[in-house]
Amino acid sequence: MPQKTQDTPMMKQYQAIKDQYPDAFLFYRIGDFYELFYDDAIKGSQLLELTLTARNKSADDPIPMCGVPHHAAQNYVDILVDKGYKVAICEQMEDPRKAVGMVKRAVIQLVTPGTVMEDKPGQAKENNYLTALYVDQQQFGFAYADLATGEIFVTQFSEFEAVTSEMLSLQTKEVVVPEDLPQQYRQQLDQLDILVSVQADQKPTAEVSFVSQGIDEPITRAVLKTLVLYLVSTQKRALAHLQVAVQYEADQFLRMDHQVKETLELTRSMRTGERQGTLLWLLDKTKTAMGGRLLKQWLDRPLITRREIEARQTRVADFMAHFFERSTLQEALTKVYDLERLAGRVAFGSVNGRDLLQLKGSLAQVPVIKNVLQQMDTKSLRALLPELDEVPEVYDLIDRAIMDDAPISVTDGGVIKAGYNEQLDQYRDAMNNSKQWILNLEAQERKITGIHNLKIGFNKVFGYYIEVTNSNLKLVPKDRFERKQTLTNAERYITPELKEKEQLILEAQEKSTALEYELFTEIREKIKQQIQRLQHLAAIISEIDVLQGFSVIAEEQHYIQPKFVSHQKGIHIENGRHPVVEKVLGPQQYIANDVTMDQTTDVLLITGPNMSGKSTYMRQLALTVVMAQIGSFVPADTCELPIFDQIFTRIGAGDDLISGKSTFMVEMIEANYALAHASNRSLVLFDELGRGTATYDGMALAQAIIEYIHDHIHAKTLFSTHYHELTQLSDTLAKLKNIHVGATEENGKLIFMHKVLPGPADKSYGIHVAKLAGLPDSLLKRADGILQHLEAGSKANTPSKPAATPKIKTPNSTSQTPREQPAAIQETQQPLPEVEPDGQLSLFKEPEVVDSKAEKVLRAIHELDLMSQTPMDTMNLIYKWQRQLKK
Ligand SMILES: Nc1ncnc2c1ncn2[C@@H]1O[C@H](COP(=O)(O)OP(=O)(O)OP(=O)(O)O)[C@@H](O)[C@H]1O
Known about the structure:
Layout: H1 9-20, E1 24-30, E2 33-37, H2 38-48, E3 53-55, E4 63-69, H3 73-82, E5 86-92, E6 105-111, E7 129-136, E8 139-146, E9 151-157, H4 160-170, E10 174-178, H5 183-190, E11 195-199, H6 206-211, H7 218-235, E12 246-247, H8 258-263, H9 279-283, H10 289-300, H11 306-321, H12 323-334, H13 339-348, H14 353-376, H15 379-382, H16 392-401, H17 422-449, E13 455-459, E14 463-469, E15 482-486, E16 490-494, H18 496-528, H19 531-557, E17 563-564, E18 571-576, H20 579-585, E19 593-597, E20 603-607, H21 614-630, E21 638-641, E22 647-650, H22 663-677, E23 683-687, H23 695-713, E24 716-720, E25 736-746, E26 749-758, H24 766-772, H25 777-797, E27 808-810, E28 813-816, H26 853-863, H27 871-886
Parallel strand pairs: 1-5, 7-10, 9-12, 10-11, 17-21, 20-24, 20-25, 22-23, 23-24
Antiparallel strand pairs: 1-2, 2-4, 3-4, 5-6, 7-8, 8-9, 13-14, 14-16, 15-16, 18-19, 18-21, 25-26, 27-28
Helix pairs in contact: 10-19, 11-19, 12-14, 13-19, 14-16, 16-18, 17-18
């Protein structure tokens, strides 16, 4: 009986290896190809658009197969990993020609989404983080690493939400967890669209102990071990570039959860997901990829220590003051390559001759950078000089050893300079002498034979040969020349002495390439010894780069150095601007605005028409705070700020469609999060909070939330609203001030002033905005009619001096006075209308007691301000009404 295909020795070897990597595509090397089999082949051929064939097609059990040429494999690996899959690279571990029996094969690397090392175009300024999680008794150890740069960070959290928020902020594509991670967390991680990889507990490696230096807590040590073991087990090599883990505490930085960072568009645009239009995009004037990555890290974690922030500011000011020196500095920085990733490649063993030349070129810039900092001659910049290590050992070594035009390949020779190694020089001499000998032989044979165009050539198949054209064949000495090949117009011959020389040349060549590779490996190992110095240098240069970038943008956009004051003194900003909107609109178009929140103001209640600039004003303040706390200058004429500990936002009505939460639910979750975590040193921005539900509910909640913050939290809070009734709160809340964004009406048209003014706005210009948006005239007329009706009703019902506190009506009681000032809103069991502010907004004459469900719903429909509803709001309401009718 013929052997089944799957039982052949090779397929058995394949299966044994594949069993160890069930969750990865196995790229199985056969000769010049990597082959995929079975399901890998079926799925892989679709994902990679490859032809699906079969091994042993004609057998009873053909095995699905597809393959990629080895030299093009990287592209295919990248595609799969980019799509979130893992790829195990299985190589032939011995020369098939020399192998006895089956060629030995082994997986040399498992490439996963979190461990990609290759530089992808456009990604140089991005880190690729692998994260790890360890849970012990409701405490969460959390760590992350960038394998390309060797950076590792570790912390712990006491809430799982903080873990997921951090993962989302870091945009990790993969998280490593221990085998015994409780199922509940596993499920929640699975929902995040992040690949979850499991790492078995094993004996720690040397890397683990190196990375964990100075880390004492068992939980942070445990998570580091999980992380590093995974790196080592996937990469299968020593990772000398892994850096000692940096321990951080979330409260050592200005805390912003993932949602806040997204809302403020610090590094990713909400609309496009790209950099364009973000604060990072605006601020990034860095000249190196490392600087670009550092800036992003700073934006993720602004500082809260005044001394540290001011140290950065001082350097920015110093760079600003030295325009000419700065341009020399920038020129030098442009010539600095990605030292961090080069160091990574040295450790990884993937560095080539050109990389080393880049390393040398970068190191050559260090004296230039030092020189220019010296010229600037300020205390803060001088302090950097001793930190700028030129790593001369590495520079000299590369300078002595690596040819200036070294090729990319490290195995084909042509990498090592003459004079670096005596043996190599001898081989090269031998080769050169022999080549000269051959030239001499050519001249000599021409003379002896009288064939003036006799040539000695070389090709890979026949080696050296003597070529004679057909017209001279009669002159060939048949006794000495042995014919080897016939061409159309010539014959090729060899002679014994030519063969002998050829042997010598080829041997010397083979030996010299092998020796070159050996020398290159040695050089790499020597540089590896200096990796930590290179990494330190990279860190200092990155910092210089980011700070010089701040000086560039500050100069270009006319920013000023913010001053830090106590929380009591509060916020004083004159002519502040939204940095990104200003950049996009141009300085002439942007209307600058003041922000004043001194000891008498904790809450600014902002009213004004749609589109007038309320959320821009709020974002402007938040971005100014973030810029100030990363050490950048800020867009304003003068700026005094306290240092904030956290920023909370609820801006824009984004639905969390994935988790099926409605706008209102998301709003309430975010509001609750802010209320639970904010302190009197926090900044809270709520944009039209409460508008995701029925008017009364929303207004009631908005008021209660403002009161809560005002009375209990004392955080600096900006609250924009369309509920004009809320402006009356300034009568009862001592530290609440009304401001509004002005607009004027001219000939029935609305002119936005974008100017923030004291006091409440007097009118909602919704209908005008609707007109600008192009709604049909007939509809607008109808809306105008309803508005007039509403206003008439409102005037009729409004007491001459509007009461600050709305009255509350329940079906069982007529109007009653609320508990006490300023607690205005009380809970009631009735769904609608639970709360009604004195007659405002009311279109119809109120029945004292609403008794039928249908009437309640009808009335709610009448009262609904359709223009201020999103479709999702309306869906929510209809759902609620349906439920009421069914009750
Ligand atoms: N200070 C300003 N100077 C110039 N233009 C501005 C200014 N503030 C806002 N704008 C422009 O007005 C537009 C609307 O601003 P924004 O979204 O802040 O309004 P809004 O009052 O929050 O609107 P809505 O109530 O509809 O959410 C912005 O896209 C911006 O182009």
